[in-house]
Write a structure and sequence with these properties.
This protein is an alpha/beta fold. 32% of the residues lie in helices and 26% in strands. The N and C termini lie far apart (41 Å).
Length: 237
């Protein structure tokens, strides 16, 4: 299958070793790893926010050569921080994800993320979970081909963690976009098609979630081991 994402030799000095990643259209990819492993650095490098070397193509098109409006349709990036200090209405924050005005798209996203009661409220008055939904809507707004999400399930209650995964699956299935999302809860990665295990600034395992969960690389990276259906601190730690 033709790759939607082709990244070659992307790196950030001291944080991300030269790394290459391919991703097929319509795939959900979990990025996992211990704290400080390089997950955020990988996502930021793929987004072109921080990258000292390497080349990234989306549908064969270099992101570095695309004008800003075009880049918004090629990719979006949701940072891990949910801090929004300006008293901007939630619906206006969503609009910031659009390369040109599209009121109908905002209405669609407000309904999808169940934000009708919050749309006119200043985002700095919303809870962290509510801001997460607003920012996810902004990331989806332009229908980008590549969606990069840093901890999108953090700060969400159980319903919204599951609903967010449903929404991302629907986006991938209907539009053929590719989603890479960093995830801390290992129980959530079975909802993804593929898992990238990051440690020490590089990808050390890449495969189906079931295979990566059972890998020696995962146990070593997290310093945990299976205990029946649960996890425990590895006795080798």
């Amino acid at each position: 299958m033709t790759s939607l994402l082709e990244a070659r030799g992307i790196a950030i000095a001291g944080r991300l070793n030269p790394t290459s990643v391919d991703a097929a259209p319509g795939s959900l990819i979990a990025v996992i790893g211990p704290n400080g492993a390089g997950k955020t650095s990988l996502l930021r490098a793929l987004a072109g926010i921080e990258r000292e070397t390497g080349r990234i193509l989306i549908d064969g098109e270099p992101i570095d050569e695309a004008p800003p409006a075009r880049r918004m349709r090629m990719l979006s990036f949701l940072p891990a921080t949910r801090s929004l200090v300006w008293p901007i209405a939630a619906q206006d924050v969503i609009a910031l994800g659009l390369p040109s005005p599209d009121p109908a798209r905002i209405v669609e996203l407000v309904a999808l993320l169940e934000l009708a009661n919050l749309a006119a409220r200043p985002v700095n008055q919303l809870s962290t979970g509510e801001r997460s939904r607003v920012l996810l809507a902004r990331a989806l707004a332009a229908r980008p081909r590549l969606i990069l999400l840093d901890e999108p399930l953090s700060n969400l209650d159980p319903y919204w963690a599951l609903r967010t995964l449903q929404i991302l699956r629907s986006e991938a299935d209907t539009s053929g976009c590719t989603v890479l999302a960093s995830v801390h809860d290992l129980s959530q990665i079975m909802a993804f098609d593929r898992a990238l295990l990051v440690d020490r600034g590089g990808i050390i395992a890449d495969g189906s979630p079931a295979v990566v969960l059972e890998s020696h690389e995962l146990s070593s990276a997290f310093r945990i081991e299976r205990a029946g259906t649960a996890w425990r601190i590895s006795e080798k730690t």
